[in-house]
Write a structure and sequence with these properties.
Two copies of one chain form a homodimer.
Chain A: E1 3-7, H1 16-29, E2 34-38, H2 44-48, H3 60-67, H4 69-74, E3 83-84, E4 90-93, H5 100-112, H6 116-122, E5 130-134, H7 141-149, E6 152-158, H8 161-165, H9 167-179, E7 186-193, H10 200-212, H11 226-233, H12 246-263
Parallel strand pairs in A: 1-5, 1-6, 2-4, 2-5, 6-7
Antiparallel strand pairs in A: 3-4
The structure holds adenosine-5'-triphosphate (2 copies) and magnesium ion (2 copies).
């Protein structure tokens, strides 16, 4: 069965896109069929995967939203909305939002047509082993829609106080959704990111998160690693840039953990 | 005359809140009367300034939005919406958004009642030398409203490829607003943040930005400085935590630049 995971955090710049791109690439390299949904109008995931939002002729978020939940129910395939990527087994439903009007309209549709993403993702069930959704940095209509469509949420938590301060409202939204539109929503785990063992407050924050969120933290901790940023600048996942860098190996162990949990026959 | 500056970037985690909190604190220390508007439902600026969103009894964004643009026009004072902070000369209009429903409603109001922030800020003109607005990480209704109410925009640009990739759409929105609701909107400047001279791609990116955005970059460049994060963890501006740290001194020189530009008599 396909596992649908939303990567979400209200805090900006915590490594949501970096996690989606590199986790997806490693899962695909481990022979899983992976679909990434770039659900952030910012479009960074699409750019990282070589598909710049303003160059896309068909499909993507815009066409999916224009279609609407009801019409999506009648469709048979996800193909009209997705693109191949540089990695076999890895496809992308890109974000092709290029104006503030479109971005505002998308948020309005997320309120008025709440089944939209779920119906789109349902088209891909069975064809993929994992569907990863990159959500925008807020707790507004679009992230809520991503959580409502997912089986579980993976929360990147940057080793910074500001990021920790935004966790209570996210956990509150998860509880609300579990009582309403997504009773099966689970927390896949909390992924500590940009950990820097040479900085005292980064070590203290990791210890604080371990005791605060007992049991929810993944074993994998993503270290601060400049090669992750360099790979992004080269528009490729780190596995195609510097496969054995510390950041890349940490994403590999996260991918192996998810593969063993959901695909071990 | 009061100078109204919106600190905005579509990219998350680039240092918007860190810039607002520390620039405001230094401007206040240099004897300017400063109002900070936390226009991000995330509420990080409010938490940094010691006013946690869920502990606020009156005022703030919520009451301001409930009042509406028309009613704000009839008011005389900004006092009912703002709070004192730990620094003399520095006041805060906090973000007191504590649920997804409120956050969605705020974005809807930003579309239906576009003069709201402008009319609120107008109440404070003359009483403050600088008004700094912390905008959320997107190019949706709330950031558009912040830009429409401002005299100028200060854009933090993290020394990272992902941040650079989001600049074209922001510059496009600025151009659109200059032709419509805010003909006088200027670019105050681009502030390079989290610069790390020990990392090659960080140096390359700074050079790239200097040639790409000629003349728009401030002389002040904010270095990566763990003391900035530690100050946030201590819920105080860096000037009250480690006044002579590299990050703090860079924000002081930015404050001095703005003071000389707008208040030199
Ligand atoms: N482990 C890491 N080490 C070093 N740099 C990193 C790491 N993870 C991410 N980065 C860099 O930090 C910045 C923020 O990461 P990213 O853009 O993935 O976060 P995000 O949560 O998706 O941001 P947004 O909220 O804007 O969507 C990027 O420039 C990225 O290249
Ligand atoms: N110059 C710096 N050196 C080191 N750390 C920094 C620096 N500036 C900001 N930070 C840290 O980086 C993180 C991101 O900064 P900040 O939260 O101010 O960005 P933001 O743009 O306001 O984010 P958001 O998009 O979530 O509103 C914070 O944890 C902050 O403490
Ligand atoms: Mg992102
Ligand atoms: Mg912020």
């Amino acid at each position: 069965k396909t596992r649908i995971i939303a990567i979400s955090s209200q805090k900006g710049g915590v490594g949501k896109t970096t996690t989606v791109v590199n986790l997806a690439a490693w899962l695909a390299l481990l022979d899983n069929r992976v679909l990434v949904v770039d659900f952030d109008p910012q479009g960074s995931t699409s750019r990282c995967m070589g598909l710049s939002p303003n160059k896309l002729t068909h499909g993507g978020l815009l066409e999916m939203f224009r279609c609407g939940a009801l019409e999506l129910l009648k469709q048979e395939q996800i193909e009209p909305y997705i693109y191949k990527t540089m990695i076999k087994n890895l496809h992308l439903l890109p974000s092709n939002i290029t104006s503030t009007e479109d971005e505002i309209w998308l948020s309005q549709q997320a309120v008025e047509d709440p089944e939209l993403l779920k119906n789109a993702v349902d088209l891909a069930i069975g064809q993929f082993d994992f569907i990863l959704i990159d959500a925008p940095p807020s707790l507004s209509a679009l992230p809520r829609m991503a959580l409502a469509a997912a089986d579980s949420i993976l929360v990147p938590l940057q080793c910074e106080e500001m990021a920790l301060g935004t966790m209570p409202r996210l956990l509150g939204l998860i509880r609300d959704l579990q009582k309403s539109s997504n009773r099966w929503l689970q927390i896949e785990g909390i992924l500590m990111t940009m950990f820097d063992p040479s900085i005292g407050y980064s070590r203290r924050l990791l210890e604080q998160a371990k005791s605060h969120f007992q049991g929810l933290l993944f074993d994998a901790v993503i270290p601060r690693d400049p090669r992750l940023s360099e790979a992004i600048a080269a528009h490729r996942p780190v596995v195609l840039y510097d496969m054995n860098s510390p950041g890349s190996l940490a994403y590999r162990s996260l991918a192996q953990h998810l593969q063993q949990k959901y695909r071990a026959e």
